[in-house]
Amino acid sequence: MRWDLDQLRQFIATADSGSISAAARSLGKAQSAVSTAIALLEADLGVMLFDRSGHRARPTDAGRVLLLEARELLRQASELDQRALSLAAGDDARLALAFDEALPYMAISALVRELSDRFPHLELTLLNGTAAEVADYVAGRRADAAFHFDRGPAYAHCDQHHIGAVPQGVFVSSGHPLLEAGLAGRKALARHRQILMHADDMREQAYSPRVWRSDSFYSIADMVADGLGWAILPVNIAREESYPKSLRQLECPSLTLPPLPVRVLWRRGTRPGASARWVETRFSELLRSAG
Question: pTM of the prediction?
């Protein structure tokens, strides 16, 4: 195989323009140079690429098939060039991100779309899980960074940075008795089962003597929607259009519910690359918009 990419460019230009002379003008080459390049390409490939019997250079059947291959090869060569330039400029070759499943979906979706536009040559891996699981992904080197709700002390193997917060509220099913009063106080809440977030390294405050626990906000939301109890949940879960079940928010003036803080984790001793730093900044902005 002795042909090169420049010959493929001249092949494509001739097919697109319909003549060797027009291709030569578009490429800024001598007509004889383009004619020679195509003749050498045909000799090397062992097929005639153009029917030269008329006034125009029309691709043969073989030429039309190989024209598709030539276009794809040039596209891949351009991708290689652009990726090399990106890497030479200090961009990351790969990035693996882990997201707490309970974080606002619309913010994550917008982030991924913008990431595609800003870093088109980045090889991206997205992982999802509970707050504890995504932290473990960083510890196990499956993820370069994890975004999750701050549910307790910092992890020994990670550095961290708080990037925002998500509002939370008290939620029940649409037919729950607590809805009848309109406003719910602590005494009323204590008469009904509370479903708590379970985390090994911290304990949620229980307002009821009867509790169930789960390590997933979505699992808790399912149980609440099924009328099995009430829970304090991130507001975005109840308002998410894709969530199939109905949840109702209670007014509880006696409870002070600060927004749930969100943090980013990365392995201690590593330095986030350009794309990871951009993700952290942009996701923080999107969380503020979502709130």
Answer: 0.66
